[in-house]
C-alpha cells in the first residue's frame, strides 16, 4: 500500500547561487558528508547533483506528510546511489521516527525515489510503500501451494 507520495522541482541555478553565497555553511546544514562527496566527484555537475538531492529531501518530507517545518532535519534524509546508479533514500532521526509511526504493523516501509535534471531544473519523486512482511513460519494457503 502507498503511505505517501511527494514531488519537488528545484532550480539548479538557485542552488548554485546559494552555494556561492553561503558555501560550506549551507552544504553542511543540508547535505551529509556522503552526499557532498558524491557532488564533489562530479565537477561538471556539482550544482545539479545538489539540486536533485535538495528536491529529493523536499519530496521525502512531503511523502512523510510533514514538510520540513515539523521537526525533520535536512540531514535526517540522505540520498545515495546503488552501484547501478539507482538513487536510494535513507532516513534517520525524526524522519525515521515519523516513517515508523506511519507504517502499519506487520509491514515494512520502502522508500522509492527517482531523480532527474534538465538545466535549469532538477526534479524528484518519492513514493513510500508499506510492504507486507511475509511470515516465514505461516503455512501456505491453498492459493499459494504449488500444483
TrEMBL record:
InterPro entries: 4-PPantetheinyl_Trfase_dom, 4-PPantetheinyl_Trfase_dom_sf, ACPS, Ppantetheine-prot_Trfase_dom
Enzyme class, spelled out: transferase
Binding locations of Mg(2+): 8, 58
EC number in record: 2.7.8.7
One of the protein's GO biological processes: fatty acid biosynthetic process
Location of the protein in the cell: Cytoplasm
Catalysed reactions, semicolon-separated: apo-[ACP] + CoA = holo-[ACP] + adenosine 3',5'-bisphosphate + H(+)
Family statement: Belongs to the P-Pant transferase superfamily. AcpS family.
General function of this protein: Transfers the 4'-phosphopantetheine moiety from coenzyme A to a Ser of acyl-carrier-protein.
Descriptive protein name: Holo-[acyl-carrier-protein] synthase
Organism of origin: Paragemmobacter straminiformis
